[in-house]
Amino acid sequence: MRLLLVRHGQTTANVDYLLDTAPPGAPLTPLGEQQAAALPDALADEDIEAVYASTLIRTQATAAPLAAARGLDVRVRDGIREVSAGDMELLDGHAEEAEPYMRTVFAWAAGDTALRMPGGESGDEALGRYDAVIAEAAASGAGAVAMVSHGAAIRMWTAARAANVDVAFAASHPLENTGVVILEGAPGEGWKALSWAGAVVAPAGDGGPTGRPVDDPQT
């Protein structure tokens, strides 16, 4: 299966740099709506057979133009929502108190999945719910699937599951709004990232649970 993981369009919380992870979440800004409207043309060469979105309104609003252009319904699934910020919900992403968020996300990607986000979920829970939606899509027989999800969740899952993406690469490559990570593979067989925001994937190769410094919560 060809899997396109798409970050949602810009939201009001992105503008204010807030850790906004709980549903329903902030709406798209006018720019975010423009970014969503541009997705069908941006992905015109992809033979997308199914479109998924998380339970947050920003992903559904981003997915709607793409699904409409392909004559598809948006399949809303909780499993691909953003990594819960727990006790850090709605904190300023630049604040010292918010630093454990991305540090925990990339610790999960590095294999410490028993670690729990303060006041939130564990890595086993976050990866498990994301895996379940991707397994559902793969079982449907669709050749190419677009999933409109969230920055931290996409980077975490890709670093954990793609054989050619390490934590350092994911940590040092934030996704812009409507940025796309394209992978090929299947559950049980493994995944390979083909491109990251339009560029061929070239892992950094550095170790460590957080890779290079990260200052973008990507929610």
Provide a descriptive summary of the structure in words.
This protein has 219 residues and is α/β, with parallel strands linked by helices. It is built from seven helices and seven strands, in the order E-H-H-E-H-E-H-H-E-H-H-E-E-E. Strands 3-2-4-1-5-6-7 form a seven-stranded mixed β-sheet, with helices on both faces. A hairpin with a 3-residue loop joins strand 5 and strand 6 (190-196). Helix 2 (30-42) runs parallel beside helix 3 (57-70), helix 4 (100-109) runs parallel beside helix 6 (151-161) and helix 5 packs across helix 6. The longest helix has 17 residues, at 123-139. The two termini are 26 Å apart. 50% of the residues are buried. Mean pLDDT is 93; it is low at 204-214.
Poorly predicted residue ranges: 204-214
Count of discrete alpha- or pi-helical segments spanning 4 or more residues: 7
Terminal CA distance reads 26 Å
Structural class: alpha/beta
Could you tell me the strand content as a percent range? 15-25%
Give the H and E element order.
EHHEHEHHEHHEEE
Please compute the radius of gyration using only Cα atoms.
Answer: 16 Å
Properties at a glance:
7 strands; 16% strand; alpha/beta; 7 helices; 35% helix; 219 residues; seven-stranded mixed beta sheet
List the helices and strands and how they pair.
Blueprint: E1 2-7, H1 12-16, H2 30-42, E2 50-53, H3 57-70, E3 74-76, H4 100-109, H5 123-139, E4 144-149, H6 151-161, H7 167-172, E5 180-186, E6 190-196, E7 199-200
Parallel strand pairs: 1-4, 2-3, 2-4
Antiparallel strand pairs: 1-5, 5-6, 6-7
Helix pairs in contact: 2-3, 4-6, 5-6
